[in-house]
Every structure is written in C-alpha cells, then in structure tokens.
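Model it.
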Amino acid sequence: MKLSIDQVRDLAKCERMMDSGEYPFVNGPSGRLMVSSEVMDELGLVTGQTISFDIMGAILEAHLASIQARIALDKAVSPDAAK
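Modeled.
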C-alpha cells in the first residue's frame, strides 16, 4: 500500500506523540500501537508494555466496542444522522 504524503505526516505526528508521552502505546508483535487511555485502563496496560497477539486482539475488540457505542449513541441522539 502506498501512503500519501499527508498520511506519512500524520503517522509521523503519531510517532512523535508517543515519543513525547502525549499518547499511550504498547509494543505489539508488529511494533508500537497507540491505545486510548480508556482502553489502557480497562485492560490494565501500561505505556511501553510489550503485548502478545491475544492482548492485541483484546485491545482491538475494546476499541471496536467503544466505536460501536458512540455510533449507537449518535443514532439515538440524531436518528436522521444514520441515513
């Protein structure tokens, strides 16, 4: 997959945010992974921790559940927005 210049800049910004401690991350099997503070707390993770594929799956499931909850809330608050 070829990234655009803007995508590379966004990724570089994310890397800097993790470097500076502005955003929490874990070290996964394929490198660093940004993780929301809420998910870090929910799963008992600490920034910089090395994780397994199983924990990475739990992180993805937690983020997905959070996104689904926000979508459901948006639909409940503004039913026309779902169309």
